[in-house]
Amino acid sequence: MGSLTTHVLDTAQGKPASGVGISLFAVGDGERTLVGAATTNDDGRADSPLLTGAALVARTYELVFEIGAYFSGQRVPTGEPPFLDAVTVRFTVANPDAHYHVPLLATPWSYTTYRGS
């Protein structure tokens, strides 16, 4: 059974990013449909997988991380207005029976992602 999970790390402060809003969209044929949402917990993770089983299909998705709002609530200089607001990561699920983990590592000035395990 496949699943989609994520987590967010605040690499500026070296800690999990708690309270980050995450939206998950299915993308295709010029349309973008909201299929899930979550907020990160104290460990920087969604409390449960964003998609599992039959809900995870082979297609393109976007994860939108509300990182600007997160850093606005931290005691980290961000600039005014903040450089980063909503970070969008577009990726494709090729095998819906596999586990896809798409983390975000962020500072107020940069971010990176990868397919984790």
Helix content: under 10%
Instruction: Report the sheet-strand fraction.
Output: 35-45%
Question: Mind summarizing the main beta sheet?
Answer: 4 strands, mixed
Distinct helical segment count: 1
SSE pattern, N- to C-terminal? EEEEEEEHEEEE
Mean pLDDT across all residues, rounded?
A: 96
Please characterize this protein's 3D structure.
The protein has one helix at residues 67-72, and strands spanning 3-5, 8-10, 15-16, 21-28, 31-39, 51-52, 59-66, 86-93, 99-101, 104-106, 111-113. The chain has one helix and eleven strands, in the order βββββββαββββ. The chain starts with a strand and ends with a strand. The protein has a four-stranded mixed beta sheet with strand order 3-2-10-11, with no helix packed on it. It is mainly beta and 117 residues long.
Task: Lay out the secondary structure.
Elements: E1 3-5, E2 8-10, E3 15-16, E4 21-28, E5 31-39, E6 51-52, E7 59-66, H1 67-72, E8 86-93, E9 99-101, E10 104-106, E11 111-113
Parallel strand pairs: 1-9, 2-10
Antiparallel strand pairs: 1-6, 2-3, 4-5, 4-7, 7-8, 10-11
Short overview:
It is built from 1 helix and 11 strands; from the N terminus they run βββββββαββββ. With 117 residues, it is mostly beta strands.
List descriptors.
117 residues; mainly beta; 4-stranded mixed β-sheet; 4-stranded antiparallel β-sheet
